[in-house]
Amino acid sequence: MTGGECLLRTLVASGVDVCFMNPGTSEMHFVAALDRVPEMRGVLCLFEGVCSGAADGYGRMARKPAATLLHLGPGLANGLANFHNARKARTPIVSLVGQHSTRHLAYDAPLTSDIEAFARTVSARTVQLESAESMGATAAEVISEARRYPGRIVSLIIPADFSWSESGPIGVAAIPPTRNCFSTKVEFGEGAGFILGGQTLTGKGLEFAARLAAGGYRVFADRNAARVESGRGRFQPQRIVYFPGPAQAQLFGLKDLVLVEAKAPVSFFGYPNEASYLAPADCRVHTLAGVEEDGIGALAALIESLGLPEASFPDLEPAELPSADGPLTLDSIGAAIAALLPDGAIICDEMVSSGPPVLAQLTTAKQFDYLPVTGGSIGQGMPVGVGAAIACPNRKVVVLEGDGSGMYTPQSLWTMAREGLDVVTVIFANRRYLILDIEMRRTGATGFGSKSNAMVDIARPNLDFVKLSESMGVPATRSLTLADFIEQFSIAMREPGPRLIEVVLPDSSR
């Protein structure tokens, strides 16, 4: 048995049965082994950033790792942006990176690079395979480490000759131990606030959050949490907003802030004359459960100690479909999505500037899972949708994507078509890096004119997502009116398979 086959069989034996890959010469023995290990699903992606983003979406929904297979240092470098998002999401991923054969490394060939340096920027641990004999044992160790709660990226660098040489036995990853629910007892006053993250924004965690809110405590959701269960019939905590001023207003007056699988809130960027730290200066911050601890267990113990009873909360009225002859606005688009979204859908959000009005409408939708941008690195929306659809093949996946961010990883569409994934991508086409219009003013920079405006204008020429999508095998339409969008989105919700809708927003025909 070659090392490549041993690696593949170790992955499968350890519960890792999906690999998002963009392989090269040094990984061909792993690729060849796919025909001998049919339990492994190999998913070809045409850009490494799609591999890393898809593994992120898969891990968030499946709650177990996928593998990625990338070619040498440059291939890994192409995937780093979405590995960054996955690291912030604390997603379990087994990152496999090919290396030149050990003999060839001495010649500093054109593709030779410091792979470990690249990998360490996004990995909790980086392992260089030492021999073909140790392939199974080392891979099992890496998989076990990736599965450590709540999840982490672990990279295994594999010299090519260890893939083609005779290997040792297949490994099986051990299940890592669960962390203690919390390490310290916290004391706080009436009206304290809670910021929930990690798995506390799902299932029992939201039930406990409702009880806290009914008990008079203010409950917030970590803005960058990897997955939030939302929609009618669920308690929906306020999400910490993006800009520092409004976020500070949300937290105003708190004397105690309790963190549960979350960190203290800070702004995305530092602005002139604005605070980076968002909690009130005199607010005491307590950690009930760290980001690697069991926050749901910690909340259960806290609820019991506080004696808080079961809580009910007023359910929202079902979303109503807006009138088709109304204006095409972000609010009306959000209302249409909320009314038409099927139960159990998964929403992958990378709308950027278009997001707040749309998301405000989705509180009245049927129940769905929400996967936001976690690390701020652009280009995660469509790849995360690919991974979510493979993890949950019986659920409709909706990617809400800005046109600027959509151009970072459009190769995702090809994988959606090739794999027949039930993913509907909605492109919000304002033909501008509109968030940078806002950020220009907030940074206090002055002197903007025609040259600087050209750096945030992505018209001239206009992007044509319909042609782009169709060229990759995904049927596509364009919405110019609200009636167009309602009709097209309604069809997309009823019919399975990949589809793209480009919504041309008013005043976007620059």
Question: What's the structural blueprint in terms of helices and strands?
Answer:
Layout: H1 3-13, E1 18-22, H2 28-33, E2 41-44, H3 48-62, E3 66-70, H4 72-89, E4 93-99, H5 115-120, E5 125-128, H6 135-146, E6 153-159, H7 160-164, E7 193-196, H8 204-214, E8 218-221, E9 228-230, E10 238-239, H9 244-251, E11 256-260, E12 284-289, H10 295-306, H11 330-340, E13 345-350, H12 355-361, E14 368-371, H13 381-391, E15 397-402, H14 403-406, H15 412-419, E16 423-429, H16 434-442, H17 450-454, H18 465-471, E17 476-479, H19 482-494, E18 499-504
Parallel strand pairs: 1-2, 1-3, 3-4, 4-6, 5-6, 7-8, 7-11, 8-10, 11-12, 13-14, 13-15, 15-16, 16-18, 17-18
Antiparallel strand pairs: 9-14
Any descriptors?
510 residues, six-stranded parallel sheet, 18 strands, Rossmann fold, alpha/beta, 3 domains
How is this structure best summarized?
By secondary structure, the protein is α/β, with parallel strands linked by helices.
Structure, explained:
The protein is an alpha/beta fold. It has 3 domains: 3-164, Rossmann fold (3-Layer(aba) Sandwich), CATH 3.40.50; 193-306, Rossmann fold; 330-504, Rossmann fold (3-Layer(aba) Sandwich), CATH 3.40.50. Helices cover 35% and strands 17% of the residues. The chain has helices at 3-13, 28-33, 48-62, 72-89, 115-120, 135-146, 160-164, 204-214, 244-251, 295-306, 330-340, 355-361, 381-391, 403-406, 412-419, 434-442, 450-454, 465-471, 482-494, and strands spanning 18-22, 41-44, 66-70, 93-99, 125-128, 153-159, 193-196, 218-221, 228-230, 238-239, 256-260, 284-289, 345-350, 368-371, 397-402, 423-429, 476-479, 499-504. The chain has a 7-stranded mixed beta sheet with strand order 9-14-13-15-16-18-17, sandwiched between helices. Strands 2-1-3-4-6-5 form a 6-stranded parallel beta sheet, with helices on both faces. Helix 3 packs parallel to helix 4 (72-89) and helix 11 packs parallel to helix 12 (355-361). The protein starts with a helix and ends in a 6-residue tail after the last strand.
